[in-house]
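Hi P.,

Sorry for the delay on this. The queue was packed all week, but I finally got your sequence through. Input first:
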Amino acid sequence: MKTVSYFIVFLLNSLIFISCNAENSVEKEPETTIPKAKTEKVPIEKIEEGIRQYITETTEKSGGIFNIVDDTLDLNLRLVRVHTEYLSHLGQGSFFACVDLADEKGDVYDVDFFLEGTADSMNVVRTNVHKLNGKPFYSWRQNKEDKTWERVPMENAGGDLLGVVEGEDEFEFYYTVELPEIDGEGRVWIPIAQSDPFQTIEILSLNVPTKEQYLTDDQFNNKSLYLELDESHSHKEISIAYRVQRLEKNPYPAEDGESLEQYLKSNTLIPVDDRFKEIALTAIGNKTKNDPLIKARALYDYVIDSVKYIKAGTYGTGDAVYACDAQSGNCTEFHSFFIALARSVGIPARFAIGASIPSDRNEGGIDGYHCWAEFYAEGKWWPVDISEANKYTALATYYFGHHGANRIELSHGRDLNFNPGPASGNINFMAYPIMEIDEFIVRPKTTFTYERKVKT
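Then the structure:
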């Protein structure tokens, strides 16, 4: 099995390849040698500029398409997104970029590019297709003896290579917001992670440009940092550093006196109605209809089979109707669809959101938020992660009843109501900041990074 030199992996910040690399190589993989001289590190912005320029120029030369051909694929694609969190400087004149490209059917391919050159002139020397609609073609495993890395077919990859840390995990989580130009009265709401039976949260530092307030929503007890801003706060930074000790989540009993009724009702984007009831009953079919656990598993499998993980179109709002109609979306659509189906047949279900910490490297960036769900059966709350089960079918059984320890929960519930709250009304869900300038919604740049505490 082909190996990748430890040097490259080391320069990728302890295996950036795992996060975004793959094969189906379009060009012959070049040999890699250790640079003999150090040069000034190229800014990430220049790497992004380089890959965008390459894709644009190649697309123009090909009459409006970006073509990738190998033994099994002949793809005509268009640019969807450059993963800025994975752009990397590999060493002297070597760079890495990860890009989402979509075909005319809406399928999204995660493609890795290796570039060489200078900050102002880069050439692509290798192109690898990594994922199709979020599903990787393979993963990587490190050889303990010689520290090289080898490709592993997904069916042979263990849970640690598929994103799961079992037992417990400990890490620092850094939440950073760059405020935009503020030309009026600004307000911002930012979720504050809280301790619970599965996570112990300590705030290591909090940096804000003005006096902070803390709010609690009146239904789910989520905590929010609230700031009132003006022109003087333009382009300032808000940062929160957490220390997190997290336990793997298994089915667990409901709290004494906990009301389940609220988890059977509609939310703005999660309706409970006859349409979803009919779909749910069809999915359950002849299975034991009086057993909520069996019914929930049938709905879980139905969502895995019927929805594609595609970040295209109107995704990311957690709209169950959109998920049902488009049969695609990200984690918010997967879990909103499941919750609507479950509630429609009398199974309490609820939503939570935060971030998933990569299991395959110990520090770096995180590709945005991640969300999940829980349903109630047999006197317990059962955690599920349907979008991850969709990506990694080998873990579909695990994710029905488990969440790995490598995540942080920032908030839970939908239609959150804070006082004061946004002019637009209740908050759909809360992972990124909710910001207004003169009552108009704006979206400040937000980044998540982490550093795992490795036990010695």
